[in-house]
């Protein structure tokens, strides 16, 4: 039986679209199947679209710098320059993370299309920055203790909704020595992210006391080895810059049989903070703040510690003991100034998580309203400045003043309000317990006190501006006429100056 001979029998065709090899540019053939370059390009576009959708789903919701600043203002008092610097740095960091996710999704499609088409057709004018990689900008915060360095970093993690851990640089040592390896910091970040490596890869690590790992000066390096100083800086270099680190899931040491994971630190934001005690002396020597004589530089006024710290540069940090390579991996440097009395008073009442609000919430569980008079707020701030503890010491002052009341209140009946005045803060009185409907002026415990120490108006409003008024209340509270020795609380916080003993008589001004 005869059959029709077709000259197309020996010509291979695309299994997907049916075009012959003469109708397309390339035809990839296999055992019994073939695919043309047009179908390959269509598949690459479909895969690229899916990867872009995945990148959009995994992208972080990055708020604008003004929104970050607004959130920080509602939680942190003062430090306007530092908050602005941190807002811009965090925004740029996570904008870079999202940009790299999108580039990684589009990179696969672009590379495949460049193999199938001409490079000029695949690369448009908008891709002239395709080969540019934006480097990471870690942050270094300088400032005395108690100014809010740790709280600022913690608040940044809250507004970004990313995992956050706080590490102490003093516990880190060089690999092979007693102490924690630097990979332990990454291990804690993974644990904070509940083992999700993708979430941990976008977290924030705050390394506190970074100034304590400065290179020791005056030691013979041929005899002693600085395993907790310069060695830790060298171990942190690669992690700060961005590398794929092997992190043990358990323990602080890496063993051959131990289970471990790998995490890329390129997208982890590192914030380092420290008090850098002595750095201002280095800056003062450089700028000539303490010069004298005919060749000395002219200065209009004596530079304060905050002004000297704000002028610190890379050379000063290197003279302090940080490695130049380590300084280069912390390009964003911001300075936090010491908190004044007005700042401390605002910290007590204004933030969303203010200390006064925290204690009011605790007392409300027992059905009691807690009130602090303006004079008490001023006395707390003055005590913190006198002790030199900054904002960190505010809670301990309130705890001492309320310790006895919090011990007795749960088993007492009929107490509706507790009023804390300046006498209760400085240790010459106790918080006043009031029944429902009872006025503060009618309370027996309040009658023998000074008007300035217990009144909710007057003196506190005056002392916020010029540092007087309420400050004298805190100083003179021990000299109130009629103060009973039996009414002295157990708190050991008091500001008593012997030179004020001569003013124990006379009326007190509210």
Question: Brief description of this entry?
Answer:
This protein is α/β, with parallel strands linked by helices. 42% of the residues lie in helices and 10% in strands. It contains 21 helices and twelve strands.
Topology:
Layout: E1 27-30, E2 33-36, H1 37-58, H2 65-75, H3 80-116, H4 119-122, E3 139-142, H5 149-160, E4 164-168, H6 183-192, H7 197-200, E5 204-208, H8 230-241, E6 244-248, E7 260-264, E8 269-274, H9 279-287, H10 305-310, H11 314-320, H12 324-328, E9 332-335, H13 341-349, H14 355-365, E10 369-372, H15 374-387, H16 394-408, E11 417-420, H17 422-426, E12 432-434, H18 444-447, H19 451-454, H20 459-466, H21 470-476
Parallel strand pairs: 3-8, 3-9, 4-5, 5-8, 10-11
Antiparallel strand pairs: 1-2, 6-7, 11-12
Structure description:
The chain is an alpha/beta fold and 510 residues long. Among the domains are: 139-215 and 226-287 and 303-335, Rossmann fold (3-Layer(aba) Sandwich), CATH 3.40.50.300; 341-503, Helicase, Ruva Protein, domain 3, CATH 1.10.8.60. It contains 21 helices and twelve strands. The protein has helices at residues 37-58, 65-75, 80-116, 119-122, 149-160, 183-192, 197-200, 230-241, 279-287, 305-310, 314-320, 324-328, 341-349, 355-365, 374-387, 394-408, 422-426, 444-447, 451-454, 459-466, 470-476; strands at 27-30, 33-36, 139-142, 164-168, 204-208, 244-248, 260-264, 269-274, 332-335, 369-372, 417-420, 432-434. The protein has a five-stranded parallel sheet, sandwiched between helices. A three-stranded mixed sheet has the order 10-11-12. It is elongated, with a radius of gyration of 33 Å. The chain starts with 26 loop residues before the first strand and ends in a 34-residue tail after the last helix.
């Amino acid at each position: 039986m005869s059959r029709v001979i077709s000259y197309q029998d020996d010509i291979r065709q695309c299994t997907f679209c049916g075009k012959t090899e003469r109708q397309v540019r390339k035809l990839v053939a296999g055992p019994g199947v073939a695919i043309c370059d047009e179908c390959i390009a269509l598949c690459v576009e479909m895969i690229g679209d899916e990867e872009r959708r995945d990148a959009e789903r995994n992208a972080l919701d990055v708020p604008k710098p003004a929104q970050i600043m607004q959130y920080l203002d509602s939680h942190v008092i003062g430090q306007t320059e530092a908050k602005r610097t941190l807002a811009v740095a965090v925004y740029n960091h996570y904008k870079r993370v999202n940009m790299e996710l999108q580039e990684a999704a589009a990179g696969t499609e672009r590379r495949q299309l460049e193999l199938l088409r001409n490079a000029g057709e695949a690369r448009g004018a908008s891709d002239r920055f395709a080969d540019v990689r934006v480097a990471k900008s870690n942050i270094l915060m300088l400032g005395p203790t108690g100014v809010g360095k740790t709280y600022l970093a913690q608040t940044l993690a809250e507004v970004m909704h990313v995992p956050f851990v706080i590490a102490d640089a003093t516990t880190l040592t060089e690999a092979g020595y007693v102490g924690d390896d630097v990979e332990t910091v990454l291990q804690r970040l993974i644990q904070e992210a509940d083992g999700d490596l993708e979430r941990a890869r976008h977290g924030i690590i705050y390394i506190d006391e970074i100034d304590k790992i400065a290179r020791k000066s005056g030691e013979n390096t041929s005899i002693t080895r600085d395993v907790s100083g310069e060695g830790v800086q060298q171990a942190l270099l690669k992690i700060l810059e961005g590398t794929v680190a092997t992190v043990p899931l358990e323990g602080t040491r890496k063993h051959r049989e131990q289970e471990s994971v790998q995490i890329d630190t390129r997208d982890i934001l590192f914030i380092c903070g420290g008090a850098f005690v002595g750095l201002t002396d280095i800056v003062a020597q450089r700028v000539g703040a303490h010069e004298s004589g005919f060749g000395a530089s002219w200065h209009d006024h004596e530079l304060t510690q905050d002004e000297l710290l704000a002028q610190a540069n890379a050379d000063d940090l290197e003279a302090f003991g940080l490695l130049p390579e380590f300084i280069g991996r912390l390009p964003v440097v911001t300075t936090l100034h010491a908190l004044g009395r007005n700042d401390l008073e605002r910290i007590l009442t204004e933030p969303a998580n203010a200390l006064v609000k925290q204690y009011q919430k605790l007392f409300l569980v027992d059905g009691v309203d807690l009130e602090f008079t303006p004079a008490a707020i001023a006395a707390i701030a003055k005590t913190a400045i006198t002790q030199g503890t900054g904002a960190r010491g505010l809670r301990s002052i309130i705890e001492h003043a309320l310790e006895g009341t919090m011990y007795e209140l749960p088993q007492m009946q009929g107490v509706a309000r507790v009023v804390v005045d300046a006498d209760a803060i400085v240790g010459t009185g106790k918080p006043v317990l009031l029944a429902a409907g009872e006025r503060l002026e009618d309370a027996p415990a309040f009658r023998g006190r000074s008007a300035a120490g217990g009144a909710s108006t007057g003196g506190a409003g005056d002392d916020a501006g010029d540092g007087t008024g309420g400050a004298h209340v805190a100083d003179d509270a021990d000299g109130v006429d009629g103060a009973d020795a039996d009414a002295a609380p157990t708190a050991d916080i008091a500001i008593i100056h012997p030179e004020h003993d001569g003013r124990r008589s006379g009326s007190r001004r509210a």
